[in-house]
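Deliverable D4.2, example record:
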Amino acid sequence: MTNYIVFDNQGRTSDRYTIVDRESGNVFAACEPTGESAITVRYCGNCADHRVALYGTGWRQMPLSRKIIIGETENYIRNAQLNPAWLGKELSRRDWPATLQDYVDQLNNLHAEGLHPTPGMPYIGPQNDGNSSKTAMAL
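Output generated by the structure prediction step:
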């Protein structure tokens, strides 16, 4: 679980928490839960997307090596730690809200089960139609 890091901007924006997956480079924005509501999370992108050659060209898109993804993710995290005004300050694990902890646990379980076969592509699910997960799409 140490492959997730959370930044807190103290409520300056509606997406108070930023979750970064150190392994895949995926970045998520999370809103602070109000009352009994569950936490709301949105996939923001991947730290290494700008390094993809021919991005958005389908089968011609060149996948990134593991070394590049880890390097770009560590760069992203280091920049966020050096400039707390950007994403906020890093939250220690014991300071995570319970709903945020539950969401990160779900992300970790999905990742452990192999439901993230494509780097940079978020998945939602288990689904009721028999599929184990479906690609989340931003419109």
